[in-house]
Amino acid sequence: MTDVTAAAGDVVELELPARPEVVSVARLVIGALVAVDPLFDEERCADLRLAVSEACTNAIQAEMVGRGRDAVADPEAEPIVMRCVLADGQIEVAITDHGGGFDPSGLQEHPEVTSPDRLNYEGGLGIPLITMLADHLEFLPTADGTTVVMRFEPRTPGLRPIIGGAPGSAGSSTG
Amino acid sequence: MATSASGVTFERDGGRLTIRIAGDLDAATVPDALRQVMGALEGQVDGIVVDLSRCGFCDSSGIMLLFRVSGAAEANGATCVVTDPTGPVRKVLELADPNGVLVVEPRQPGG
Question: What is the CATH classification number for the domain harbouring A153?
Fold first, then answer.
């Protein structure tokens, strides 16, 4: 495990090239940060790693959709930014992309997980998973993209099934 | 730079195909893993076992891979069982597939 020294109120900000290969780096960083806080047990740490993986994947895909897949390999492309704040017994993680904007309500057009038609969709599970894992989830539009803000508390929240649960419906807001 | 890594290996025993996935299943690794897996399904297969005992991380990209394998198996009249997921992977399966579309079992004897 990477050695990390962090304390309450610390801010860690990381710029990552918008490529799928960096998702594991983001997981590594958030895992190391969470491990510093004794209030977050191993299972909760795994929750954060999963949520960050999903959010970073969405950010990278937004860049791909917004600027074209070839643009992802462009060295001039803007990075995605992961900002982590450790404060008051909770951890806030914000992921910012420059993909041109994101409408979370569009995810509701996907068939339910149990529908055979669901197999025709490559994505759409990420936001519902984050919704179940985070205590707070918010989508903030920026000038050229979106910032996804996730807040986590130590206690594992009650598991909320995806079926019937609209993205962003649990302790969250969309904007 | 550290990157995700996954390894996919296959074992055939008659009509039974065992797919062993090691490492991480995420946006970086799933495209290649999916190509390998779907290629392996082109032959005659009666039953598929997806062994996740060495898969340390799986996000929605990996879940979609498992849905793809399960759907392909069903379309060909084959069975598909996901075996021995590690703790974090099992939790993702429970969250993303609450109605049990995927058949998940502990490690099979001799598996």
Answer: 3.30.565.10
